[in-house]
Amino acid sequence: MWSNFFMQEEEGRAAAAGVGGAGGGAGGHTGAKGVRGGTGKRRTGKPQMSDSQEGKIKLAFFVAIVGVTLTVLGVGTEFWVELAPPKTFFDNKTCQAAHYGLWKGCVRTLRVSDIDPDRESCGPAELPGESNCTYFKFFTSGDNAVIFKRTTTKSLNIAAAVLALVSLFMMIMGSVCIIMSLSKGVQFFLKPASFCFTLSGILVMLTLIVFHQSVLALLDSDHSMPLQHELSWSVACVGSAGAILIVGGVIFLMLFLPYSPWEKCFPHRSSAT
């Protein structure tokens, strides 16, 4: 009788131990799943950019690209300023007009019959005619250029060209920042992109100011021949590009802010809508 009692007690203890081991194993599996789930959440818990925010960045980047395109078009062309002497300084058949930009100048021979009879000076330079274009020597040999007995100011022309190149470099850096922001899905790169595009727009405006000063210095270098001058379409492209780049930089800065400036300035109106 006592042997049967001890055998039943040992069997009960063994059954209890088996249930406890199974519970511990289940708890271990549950804990492992919890740890795995926690690590999974940490991996996917990085702040990602929303679709609406990404769309706004792409739209602002398109605006900046328009400014970059206009800058490249203006810097690469030589229609910054046109110089035109009176038609009376030439024969009755042909006359000459000049136009130049940051890198080279052109002297074009025009037919007087193609010019507006009411126009006193030769031009405009867009009229068909023979053109002779040369790059400025102060980029190679350091010599000034002579256009209609006027002499260019080397320091001002080189300063305008350097400012234009630096502005193009800043545009490239800003574009790289935006591409990294879109590829990585983070807004951190919007702040340096805003700085680069805003600074490039300011440098473009400074390029126009320095170039205009170089044109005035050219006109004041000699007064033996009357000469009319007018800024051409390349300057219009560069001026528009500078304004667009500054606007694009401001937009990128607004997108970087953690709050909407519009809602900050007009909280009642935004909440009502």
UniProtKB/TrEMBL annotation:
Can the keyword Lipoprotein be found in this entry's annotation?
A: no
Q: Where is this region: Disordered?
A: 17-51
What subcellular locations does the record give?
A: Membrane
- Residue ranges of the TM segments: 59-81, 158-182, 194-219, 231-257
**What topology in the membrane does the UniProt record assign?**
Multi-pass membrane protein
Alphabetical keyword list: Membrane, Transmembrane, Transmembrane helix
Cite the InterPro entries for this sequence: PMP22/EMP/MP20/Claudin, VDCC_g1su
Q: Matching Pfam families, A to Z? A: Claudin_2
One MF term in the entry's GO annotations = calcium channel regulator activity
* GO annotation, biological process: regulation of calcium ion transmembrane transport via high voltage-gated calcium channel
What Gene3D superfamilies does the database record attribute to this sequence? Answer: 1.20.140.150
User: GO CC annotations?
Assistant: L-type voltage-gated calcium channel complex
- In this chain, composition skew of type Gly residues spans 18-38
Keyword Transmembrane in the entry? The reply is: yes
Entry's PANTHER family?
VOLTAGE-DEPENDENT CALCIUM CHANNEL GAMMA-1 SUBUNIT-RELATED (PTHR15025), VOLTAGE-DEPENDENT CALCIUM CHANNEL GAMMA-6 SUBUNIT (PTHR15025:SF6)
Write down what this protein is called: Calcium channel, voltage-dependent, gamma subunit 6a
The record lists the organism as: Scleropages formosus (Asian bonytongue)
The beginning of the lineage is: Eukaryota, Metazoa, Chordata, Craniata, Vertebrata
